[in-house]
Amino acid sequence: MSTYSARMPQPATKGRNLGAVSVLSILTCLLVAAILYSVTIGRYDLSVRDVAYILIDNVHPLVVPYWDPVHEVVVEQVRLPRIMAAVIIGFGLSVSGAALQGLFRNPLVDPGVIGVTSGAGFGGTLAILMGLQGYILLAMAFLFGIGSVLLVKLLSTVRGRTSMLTLVLAGVVISAFFSAAISIAKLLADPFQKLPAITYWLMGSIASSNYLDVLLLVAAVGPSAAAIYLLRFQINILSLGEEKARALGTKVVLVQWIILVASALISAGVVATSGIIGWVGLVIPHVGRALVGASHQRLLPVSGVLGAIYLLLVDDLARTVTTAEIPLGIITALIGVPVFAVILRRLHARGGWSSD
Amino acid sequence: MIEASNLTVERGGRTILQDYSITLDRGRTLAVLGANGVGKTTLISTLIGVLKPRSGRLRIGGQVGFVPQLFEAPFSYSALDIALMGRARHLGLFGAPGRRDYEITRHYLGLLGIHHLEPQAFNSLSGGQRQLVMIAQALASECELLVLDEPCAALDYKNQDKVLGLLEHLRQAHGMTIVFSTHMPQHAVEIASDVLLMTSGSSYICGPAANALSAENLTVLYDLPIARADFAGVGKHTYAPLFRHDGAHHDAG
């Protein structure tokens, strides 16, 4: 059965592929537009032209600086790192959410399900409780996040095999444990200084992002998202179920490990720099699927860019709607929950989803 | 193509198959029959390499393609997406299907006459169409041995005929070796050259359909009288059960 006849014209799917490419390029243009818009809005009203001159001035002065030096600081030290953080976080959480939903064959899974979010949350809480900040807070949140995923994996592996259902349950167990631990830490915290700091940090915010945060995010999200993208076709196959994937000749355990570790890195990086930002990784992949279909070759990049746009706009809301900052996590939950409810009802109406 | 000697297979710590020895030559069709729970699925999982036998020797002389029982996808994949996944073996860990993979997959979709289903959502297809897409997926993996778990379950007669006809065509025209499980002896009568009658985890009858597929053997297999019925004038026959209505004691105890 090795011979096959000449290729046949196939307009239907060609159109679909083209569709996916153009969806991605349209979204990328929208992302660029959203970034430009976001640099200009805020307490100081600047035009795109002002921003462009301010930025180009660093490389090669085109015009004599006509702007207030404060504007330069606002653009370069306040708004840019914050925008970069929003874009990277939205991108990373969405890519990881799409990959995990495929891996677990369940459209209602998000990066928090593997226990990393609450683990990292506890690490950060512990750091604040002990009066540690900066690098050490980042490192502790990161290490606790990775540690909790290893714990989940350990808990769900019996005789060398991991069942995906057990893994989700182990994730719930570990999350519950760290949530309790966070509560204890809050109870012990000094109610005037540390408790508010912990509470605010946990709500998720990128208000005080600096270039160090951006660097850590790039280091955590960049390689992880790349690894997930490289496995795009393997995720398709794993989503058919472990047995089918094995029969098709896939290295099931290896792919599962890479995706789990990559997702853990992304979530740990996000929590370490910005606290807990929920619902993005759960909701965005559904929008992506509605746009380009379920195949992860198309879904992963589209979800990433969609997530970046989404979180950037949410952060714009967070910093402009009221004079005080609204923590990002609150807005993503306020938007995410109703969208999630609609998705849930649609899945239910369709007869649910298949699982093992 | 298949050489299994003294296979013993466990599942969840329980021995399901004991001392199974099966041989099947290239280009033949083996039908696997047996009561529910006797281990048909375990045998199939072993043949496709998902389960490792605890002892015994299993040699398979070629690439294996697997078609599971009536399949539902977890997401809204198109029929082409599903069929393309058959190419997994030929792509590396980080690979994605390229032009050649699309060509091969489309060739087999065309061969099965389901070209037009390509862009449609897999889950919206009828059972028969889905079965054909899954067969296209297996073929796209360029397998030489095709293993199907109850390929005709949940299909109406017309679609059963279609699938059986297709399997027979694949064997004749493409030299494919085929193993399939079924609950209907008729399917074995129609296309199987060999049959495996699994009476229990440790006893079985395996041999050419002409000898092994008989009313007596089927009666033992299903623990129910089975009679042979000949269709007048067409030289074909089938096997039918005589239901006794005494299998369950509803009000006992």
TrEMBL record, chain A:
Record-level GO BP terms: siderophore-iron import into cell
Entry's localization field: Cell membrane
Membrane topology term: Multi-pass membrane protein
Transmembrane intervals: 20-39, 83-104, 124-152, 164-189, 209-231, 252-270, 299-314, 326-344
Keyword Cytoplasm included in the entry's annotation: no
Keyword Amino-acid biosynthesis: no
GO cellular component, one term: plasma membrane
Source organism, top-level taxon: Bacteria
One Gene Ontology term of the molecular function aspect: transmembrane transporter activity
Coiled-coil features, chain-numbered ranges: none
Pfam family, any one: FecCD
Keyword entries, A-Z: Cell membrane, Membrane, Transmembrane, Transmembrane helix, Transport
Family note: Belongs to the binding-protein-dependent transport system permease family. FecCD subfamily.
PANTHER family reported in the protein's UniProt record: FERRIC ENTEROBACTIN TRANSPORT SYSTEM PERMEASE PROTEIN (PTHR30472), MOLYBDATE IMPORT SYSTEM PERMEASE PROTEIN MOLB (PTHR30472:SF70)
The protein's name: Iron complex transport system permease protein
Organism from which the protein derives: Shinella granuli
Lineage of the organism: Bacteria, Pseudomonadati, Pseudomonadota, Alphaproteobacteria, Hyphomicrobiales
UniProtKB/TrEMBL annotation, chain B:
A Gene Ontology BP annotation from the UniProt entry: zinc ion transport
Molecular function per GO: ATP binding; ATP hydrolysis activity
Record bears the keyword Ribonucleoprotein: no
Ranges of residues in domain ABC transporter: 2-225
Record bears the keyword ATP-binding: yes
Alphabetical list of Pfam families matching this protein: ABC_tran
InterPro entries: AAA+_ATPase, ABC_transporter-like_ATP-bd, ABC_transporter-like_CS, Metal_Ion_Import_ABC, P-loop_NTPase
Record key words, sorted: ATP-binding, Ion transport, Nucleotide-binding, Transport, Zinc, Zinc transport
Protein family (similarity comment): Belongs to the ABC transporter superfamily.
Protein name: Iron complex transport system ATP-binding protein
Organism of provenance: Shinella granuli
